[in-house]
Amino acid sequence: MYEDLAVFSGTANPDLAREICEYLGCPLRGADVFKFANDNTFVRLQKSVRGQHAFIVQPTCAPVNDNLMELLIMIDALRRDSAADITAVVTYYGYSRTDKKDQPRVPITARLVADMITVAGATRFMTMDLHADQIQGFFTIPVDDITAFHMLSGYFLQKGVEDAVVVAPDVGATKLGRDFAEALRVPLAIIEKRRERREGKKTEVLSLIGEIKGKNAIIFDDEIDTAGTVRDATKFLKSKGARDVYACVTHALLSQPGPERINESGLTELVVTNTVPIAEDKREKMKDVKVTVLSVAPLLGEVIRRIYLGISVGEMFNE
Fold first, then answer.
1. Is 281 helix (H, G, I), strand (E, B) or coil?
2. 28, β-bridge pairs
3. Domain 5-147+297-317 classified CATH 3.40.50.2020?
4. Sequence-separated (6 or more) residues with CB below 8 Å from residue 262
5. Beta bridge partners of 138
């Protein structure tokens, strides 16, 4: 059924690529990916993809520049081998926070990356939970921004946390938090951050909009990086009388010292997806917190199947 469907993986998240292929019932195509002694990346396809529909699974997480170059080189290899079309499945979009010119003399790197992917030869771009919706407009090729929202909300609906309150960890996450609270049919609380000058020093002060005392809090955001926000929010919520505190995000980047901060935060559970792999040493540093990883492979596998067969992707989320 999928004879001309070719799914490849870079080195960033091969386990996810294998799970996607298991869902589709097709083999993961082989590619030799390595670095020369001079640090140049090299890619060689093991079989021809002439006239086939190619998909590359490669998040541009850390090491961001290596993974990005690997993606671009693999796209170029597929284009030069005359693939019919090439979809870049970038489950995490690196440089997504540099999405606007918010100060003088700075770049818009998210746009630059979009241009590079397009020029390399990608004919379609697939990602998950972009940090900023406007990034879709940086591309001149079709973009599918797939969300893990329903998977994450479904987990907590099934878990049935009693007396739950969804918490937006800052004002910028209010819309995400509101939608998540509506899905769980629970109230929303917002942590507001502001800076005050005391004794000649600027101090960050947290205030809470909403009721949390005696409740179980669910912090919801799109990603966790160094985990400072989650750690501070958890301790703040506990100081305001929250019972258990859960954190729920799509992308678990967990850059240093993120794992240590999660471990010391007092979280009851951290719920994430596998858009980005979590190294074993990071898991070990979070041993005092329950970490639940939900796989996005069936979701992405279904999206790939629909793209391949020319079926609407949007209908998946309207059913």
1. helix
2. 7
3. yes
4. 224, 227, 230, 231, 247, 254, 270, 285, 286, 289
5. none
- pLDDT tens sequence across 185-195: 999 999 998 76
Residues with a catalytic annotation lie at 193
Detail the DSSP E strand segments found in 91-222. 124-128, 143-146, 164-168, 188-198, 201-209, 216-220
CATH topology of domain 149-294: Rossmann fold (3.40.50)
314 confidence band (pLDDT: 50, 70, 90): confident
Secondary structure element (H or E) that encloses residue 8, with its range: strand 5-9
How many angstroms separate the Cα of 168 from the Cα of each of 97, 193, 220? Answer: 18, 11, 6
In which element (H, E) is residue 182 found?
Answer: helix 174-184
Are the C-beta atoms of residues 178 and 220 closer than 8 Å to each other? no
Task: Determine the Cα–Cα distance for residues 168 and 189; give it in Å rounded to an integer.
Answer: 6
In angstroms, the CA 237 to CA 218 distance is 10
pLDDT digits (tens, 9 = 90+) for 49-97: 999 999 999 999 999 999 999 999 999 999 999 999 999 999 999 999 9
Dist CA 230 CA 234 (whole Å): 6
Cα–Cα distance for residue pair 261/254, rounded to 1 Å: 9
Domain boundaries, the chain: 5-147+297-317, 149-294
Sign of the torsion formed by the C-alpha atoms of 43, 46, 51 and 53: negative
Phi, psi of 89 (to 5 degrees): -100, 85
User: Pairing state of beta strands 201-209 and 188-198?
Assistant: antiparallel
**Alpha-carbon Rg of the chain, whole angstroms?**
21
